[in-house]
Amino acid sequence: MSRIGRMPIPLPPGVTVNIEKGRVTVTGPKGELSRPISPDMQIVQQDNTLIVSRPSDSKEHRSQHGLTRSLLANMVTGVSSGFDKYLEIVGVGYRAEKSGDKLVLRVGHSHPVEVSPIPGVTLAVEGNRIKVSGIDKEAVGEMAARIRKIRPPDAYKGKGIRYAGEVVHLKPGKAGKVGGKK
User: Fold this and answer.
1) Which of 80, 108, 127 is a domain's end point?
2) pTM of the full predicted structure?
3) E runs forming strands in 100-174
4) How many Å apart are CA 68 and CA 142, to the nearest integer?
5) Would you say residue 171 lies in a domain?
6) 158 vs 40: CA distance, rounded Å
7) Residue 99 class from Cβ within 10 Å (0-12 exposed, 13-18 middle, 19+ buried)?
8) Cα distance between residue 173 and residue 153, in whole Å
9) Are 22 and 41 in contact (CB under 8 A)?
């Protein structure tokens, strides 16, 4: 049996779950998320927990079991506390600024790059850090990946946009001529 799929999902106070055939809707203080799920998976709400179980040990049901539980747990976390992802801008003259709800990046291109947020995601600039936040973990990760893709970290100097805490291993570059003709 799936170790992840077996774990119950605790429901924090203020979070309600509506389970229909093939769709689950989670509502909390930060908002509401709805997602289609496999109709084969059985979701039961007992007291303040959600329990996901599968009907058989077939390969398809085993693969859906842990996935369904993880998706539901992320929905519950999102509507109760939300998700944040931080990006760091590294490089001389590289900077970001907010213009309305858009993000304007000046990261070594010949022009400033404007980034519009995905619906349900908010962007904030704190010095040389960009904060991507929202209730949908998938949308927050997608928006952070789109921003990073504009100028990924350079392998030789380390300049660019990287995730907070990301380790960029720098290449040594050219060694140059060591010896020459004598």
Assistant:
1) 80
2) 0.87
3) 102-106, 113-115, 121-126, 129-134, 160-163
4) 20
5) no
6) 47
7) exposed
8) 15
9) no
